[in-house]
Automatic annotation (TrEMBL):
Protein name from the UniProt record: N-acetyltransferase domain-containing protein
Gene3D superfamilies noted in UniProt: 3.40.630.30
CDD domains (UniProt xref): NAT_SF
Domain N-acetyltransferase: start-end pairs: 13-197
Superkingdom assignment: Eukaryota
């Protein structure tokens, strides 16, 4: 409480549910200030700015259960309601989903089956720079966690940059999260030229039913595999699931369906799906010098003029650009890396058709398929950081134990709905 010439001033922070009709502009303002390169505090160095296209809940909207909260500073002067001022100073998003948290042995085929549990995922935590160090972020996180528990979530997890010390301290020191996984974010520019397909590999586009069958039969034991994979594959943002097989084995005409394919699959094959983030958000690299922009433009001009040279040109990333996200990457056999590379080439060409600036994916740091995913080191993140917390309940299957203490596997399934 502070006393000024106008009387008594009282202030309090209220956390409430986001109101899409009245809060959108205020939330966008805070988002813009908090975004790296978005506000007046920009350092002038290269930074990535995210535009959510007027939909603050776009990153959780397609999840089965989601919530967005805002922190509102309420200031009352002199005790009069007519002198009350309200300002949104922070927000947080979250969703609850059922995913694979481990495996157990079965007395019937298959020998190993997935164990599912409900998890809450926190993303998009923002606090206005002028209101930081006031406990607002902590209040938002704890309120979201209460909602997770109410919706029967056994765990909560977040993803943050491994050099974002403020975020890491908040979750690990104040909220009791543990450092859990360090997947790699791999980003490839979309060049002005198309990637030439491998003439020894056939690529088949699967219908959603076949894609679901393939994923459930072969990838359901992968960590974080979503139980509602059918909802993901049938979402309007999903551009398709693509299967790479040896030339002469299967094609669009001879394709027997997922069940028969898995019964007599070739020695090597690979699969991935493509998600259209371009219709959800736009990215923009800010802080580039004029010289850097001219150089990038020159590479694109040369690439378009001489496409047969396959020169690596820099896309138009210094203005708003869209991107596609590759998920559900998997495969088998000694040539699976070669096959996933072919699928990434197809995804690149699809991104070019859609006018995307980059194609991105996220995989476990030790995933063998990582070797076949083309990417630029300067645009990628070698170690993203996932932190996890277990709530004080017994999980859906006691044989899994505490997931937060489990060792990492070779693969991880990254849900495109919250990337």
């Amino acid at each position: 409480m502070v006393v000024d010439s106008g009387g008594v001033v009282t202030a309090a922070v209220v956390v409430r549910e986001y109101d899409e009709k009245k809060d959108c502009k205020a939330v966008e303002k805070v988002e813009n200030i908090c975004e790296v390169g978005g506000g007046p505090s920009s350092t002038g160095k290269l930074s990535l700015y995210t535009d959510l296209l007027g939909d603050p809940i776009c990153r959780v909207r397609h999840s089965p259960t989601y919530l967005m909260l805002v922190a509102e500073m309420v200031v009352v002067v002199g005790g009069g309601v007519d002198k009350e001022r309200r300002e949104i100073v922070g927000m947080i998003r979250g969703c609850v989903k059922t995913v694979t948290c481990g495996t157990k042995f079965s007395t019937k085929p298959p020998d190993v089956v997935p164990v599912y549990d409900k998890v809450g995922y926190i993303l998009g935590l923002r606090v206005s720079p002028s209101h930081r160090r006031m406990g607002i972020g902590l209040k938002l996180v704890r309120t979201m966690e209460q909602w997770f528990v109410k919706n029967d979530a056994q765990y909560s997890y977040i993803a943050t940059e491994n050099d974002n010390q403020a975020s890491i301290n908040l979750f690990t020191q104040k909220c009791n999260y543990s450092k859990f996984r360090t997947p790699s974010i791999l980003v490839q520019p979309v060049f002005a030229h198309r990637i030439r397909p491998n003439n020894k590999i056939n690529v088949i586009k699967l219908n959603p039913a076949d894609a679901e069958s393939l994923y459930r039969r072969h990838f359901s034991t992968t960590e974080f595999f979503p139980h509602d994979i059918d909802s993901v594959l049938n979402n309007k943002l999903n551009l398709g699931t693509f299967l790479a097989v040896p030339k002469g084995s299967y094609d669009a005409v001879s394709w027997p369906g997922a069940e028969k394919f898995l019964t007599g699959r070739p020695e090597s094959w690979a699969v991935l799906s493509v998600w259209n983030c371009k219709d959800v958000m736009r990215l923009e690299v800010r802080g580039a010098s004029r010289v850097r922009k001219v150089f990038a433009k020159t590479t694109r001009v040369v690439d378009r003029a001489f496409p047969w040279l396959n020169l690596p040109s820099v896309p138009e990333v210094f203005g708003p650009f869209g991107f596609h996200f590759l998920y559900g990457l998997g495969g088998e056999g000694p040539k699976q890396v070669k096959y996933i590379k072919a699928l990434c080439g197809l995804a690149h060409n699809l991104g070019k058709e859609f006018g995307c600036g980059v194609v991105a994916t996220e995989v476990a740091s030790c995933d063998p398929l990582k070797l076949g995913i083309p990417h630029w080191k300067s645009l990628s993140c070698a170690e993203d950081l996932w932190c996890m917390k277990k709530f004080g309940k017994i999980g859906s299957d006691e044989c899994v134990g505490d997931w937060t203490k489990s060792p990492p596997g070779l693969s991880i399934f990254v849900d495109p709905r919250e990337f």
